[in-house]
Design brief:
This protein has six helices and 17 strands. By secondary structure, it is an alpha+beta fold.
Length: 268
């Protein structure tokens, strides 16, 4: 069974077509949406179909993609699980289309909110370049992730993450050759707060601070199915407090103030 997700207006219309749960719809020879009483199931890809035309009834393969077209917080929008029965085509922007679809059930608000949070995390993970961080740890298994990113991987939220404002703070028990991460920076201007690292690099627009610490403690954290070696939580907080007292330490002071202002540190 091929399953997808579809957003609609509160009256269960989409592009002027009225749908109902439990019913099957198809595109007829005149490219009109019709109800089908004898359901078929021959789902297969077909490149002759064109998205954003009357060739197809639109849906998405992932719930998170639906929310690019329908606003979670808008009460005029509802979300449904659908079964793809006919030929289909997938686009690059998360939108798909089929010539025959069945409306299975409506999603609860809790299910939709979970999908929204997953999309937020996907976008932030991409912006913070966690895939690059994983690749670095795979190549250099001894390195430890410190700083604000270690908080992020634990699920602690800082508002500045929305602007992707977080460097890679890397700790290693001994020197590692990171010269492949080009555009090496080694100026005092780059060390405006927290100057206890030994070298600074730039990789795909992300600043990397490397510190050598043979006895650094770490923990193994699982975040969204991936394991990361991260620095001790108390060491990260202690470093932020120390940096906050230094010149240019306002970023760390703001981090501590934000973390302390919450009754429960969690995703928002």
């Amino acid at each position: 069974m091929k399953i997808g997700y579809k957003g609609m207006k509160s009256d269960m219309t989409c592009r002027g077509i009225k749908f109902e749960v439990g019913k099957t719809y198809y595109i007829d020879k005149d490219k009109k949406v019709r109800e089908r009483s004898n359901p078929i199931d021959y789902n297969r890809p077909n490149e002759r179909l064109k998205l954003c035309t009357n060739d197809v009834i639109h849906y998405c393969n992932n719930l998170k993609d639906v929310q690019s077209y329908y606003n979670l917080n808008d009460e005029r929008h509802r979300f449904f699980v659908v079964q793809i029965l006919g030929e289909f085509i997938d686009g690059e922007d998360g939108k798909s289309g089929t010539d025959c679809i069945k409306i299975l059930r409506e999603l609860s608000r809790e299910e939709v909110e979970t999908g929204f949070i997953d999309k937020l995390r996907d976008d932030l993970d991409d912006s913070l370049k966690l895939s690059d961080l994983r690749a670095m740890q795979e190549k250099f298994p001894m390195i430890i992730i410190g700083g604000s990113l270690s908080l992020y991987l634990r699920g602690y939220w800082l508002e500045r993450f929305r602007a992707c404002n977080s460097d890679f703070d890397i700790i290693s028990p001994y020197w590692v050759d990171l010269t492949e991460y080009k555009d090496i920076v080694d100026t005092e201007d780059e060390k405006n707060s927290g100057n206890d690292f030994d070298d600074t690099f730039s990789f795909r627009g992300k600043k990397i601070d490397l510190r050598i610490s043979p006895h650094e403690r770490y923990e193994i954290i699982t975040y969204r199915g991936h394991q990361y070696k991260v620095g001790s939580f108390i060491n990260v907080i202690e470093a932020k407090a120390r940096y906050a007292l230094q010149k240019g330490g306002s970023k760390h002071l703001n981090d501590l103030t934000e973390l302390m202002s919450k009754n429960k540190l969690e995703w928002i």
